[in-house]
Automatic annotation (TrEMBL):
<feature type="domain" description="Multidrug resistance protein MdtA-like barrel-sandwich hybrid">
    <location>
        <begin position="55"/>
        <end position="172"/>
    </location>
</feature>
<dbReference type="InterPro" id="IPR006143">
    <property type="entry name" value="RND_pump_MFP"/>
</dbReference>
<comment type="similarity">
    <text>Belongs to the membrane fusion protein (MFP) (TC 8.A.1) family.</text>
</comment>
<dbReference type="InterPro" id="IPR058625">
    <property type="entry name" value="MdtA-like_BSH"/>
</dbReference>
<dbReference type="Pfam" id="PF25917">
    <property type="entry name" value="BSH_RND"/>
</dbReference>
<dbReference type="GO" id="GO:0015562">
    <property type="term" value="F:efflux transmembrane transporter activity"/>
</dbReference>
<dbReference type="Pfam" id="PF25975">
    <property type="entry name" value="CzcB_C"/>
</dbReference>
<feature type="domain" description="CzcB-like C-terminal circularly permuted SH3-like">
    <location>
        <begin position="288"/>
        <end position="344"/>
    </location>
</feature>
<protein>
    <submittedName>
        <fullName>Efflux RND transporter periplasmic adaptor subunit</fullName>
    </submittedName>
</protein>
<dbReference type="GO" id="GO:1990281">
    <property type="term" value="C:efflux pump complex"/>
</dbReference>
<dbReference type="InterPro" id="IPR058649">
    <property type="entry name" value="CzcB_C"/>
</dbReference>
Length: 371
């Protein structure tokens, strides 16, 4: 009886269909759209305007300010007189030194005749000559000090500020006037390491900021508040080779011609656009979130690319480059516009269905990325 029951159970089991496991549910992932084209190569940075040529003007001697001939905002020409000190004391010194010089010169001339006749010793003549030379130097110094009571413009420009008023006592080397030439303006920005690397990592190529509007160069433009409809071409001037100790950014200076139809003055702010397409797009370099890149079984880098029609993912091998903060450089393997998995990549398999979570923003390395 027991055997019959067991046999019946076995036969009944053989007649049933095999149990199938339910297909895996789709996994929610956060997606990232791979950048492409020149728009992704444009970076913006806050900038500060400064005068290309500027000087702190001061008298070389002390005295009472008698004439201050300019006011803030005045345009001045090179060698124009800007201010004068009271020259009285210096004129008196010149007259005193001139009298001493004339006396020493006469003694020296007489000494020449006397030593030829043998009436004075060589020692006395040498003393006369030394006194003459000393008196000549003293007179020259006094005349120069008198000239220093007049302050002139070393170049044409605009008076930015004046720090004294008439009849004040002024010390030597004390700044009296700030003079700026604003026919040209400097625009200063601070570049992160990632951008500096982009324009410097290929020796021999025209990628250096200093090389200006050449093939493969970085193109720069400035915009100003209130005139967003216009952009001004910036010319590269200099880039620091040492990073700031606090911000780890590199001070970079551009030059532009001053606008003629509205004021752009030193101290104002600007928005600087750097077009890196000349150096970035040439190698199809793209940046993606670092956590989107996974290693396959052979430890080769890959990303998961979405098929939007089927909402499934497939592994795509990539060639990676540099790291910058939370971003990694993809040198090959991806095209602009593709969607890849940014969050959830370690849990995926080939052909797995996924559901879309809110997209992340473009993972270009930013100026505030930790490097």
């Amino acid at each position: 009886m027991v055997c019959l029951i067991v046999a019946s159970a076995l036969l009944g089991g053989c007649g049933k269909a095999q149990v199938e496991l339910p297909p895996p549910a789709s996994r929610p992932v956060k997606l990232f759209t791979v950048g492409g084209g020149s728009e992704d190569a444009v970076r913006t940075f806050p900038g500060r305007v400064d005068a290309t040529q500027r000087a702190e003007l001061a008298f070389r001697v002390s005295g009472q300010l008698r004439e201050l001939l300019v006011k803030e905002g005045d345009l001045v020409k090179k060698d124009q007189v800007l201010a004068r000190l009271d020259p009285t004391d210096y004129a008196i010194v010149v007259e005193d030194r001139r009298a001493a010089y004339d006396n020493a010169r006469r003694n020296f001339e007489r000494g020449k005749d006397l030593i030829e006749d043998g009436n004075i010793s060589r020692l006395d003549f040498d003393r006369m000559e030394a006194e003459f030379r000393s008196a000549s130097a003293a007179l020259n110094a006094a005349e120069q000090d008198l000239e220093y009571t007049v302050l002139t413009a070393p170049f044409s420009g605009r008076i930015a500020s004046r720090n004294v008023e008439n009849f004040e006592e002024v010390l030597a080397r004390q700044t009296v006037i700030w003079l700026q030439n604003i026919d040209e303006l400097d625009v200063i920005i601070n570049l992160p390491e990632s951008v500096v690397r982009s324009v410097r990592d290929e020796p021999g190529e025209d990628t250096d900021l200093r090389r200006g509007e050449t093939a493969g160069a970085v193109r720069a433009y400035a915009r100003f508040d209130g005139r967003d409809d216009r952009q001004f071409v910036l010319r590269p001037k200099e880039i620091a080779t040492k990073a700031d100790d606090q911000t780890q950014t590199f001070r970079t200076t551009f030059t532009m011609d001053a606008p003629t139809d509205f004021n752009v003055l030193p101290g104002m702010t600007a928005t600087v656009e750097l077009n890196l397409s000349g150096v970035v797009d040439r190698d199809s370099v793209r940046w993606v979130p670092a956590r989107a890149v996974q290693a396959d079984s052979n430890m080769a880098p890959r990303v998961w690319v979405l098929d939007p029609d089927t909402m499934t993912v497939s592994a795509q091998p990539v060639e990676i480059g540099r790291m910058s903060g939370r971003s990694v450089e993809i040198r090959s393997g991806l095209a602009g516009g593709e969607e890849i998995v940014a969050v959830g990549a370690p849990y995926l398999a080939e052909g797995m269905k996924v559901t879309r979570m809110p997209k992340t923003e473009q993972a270009q390395p930013r100026a505030d990325d930790p490097l």
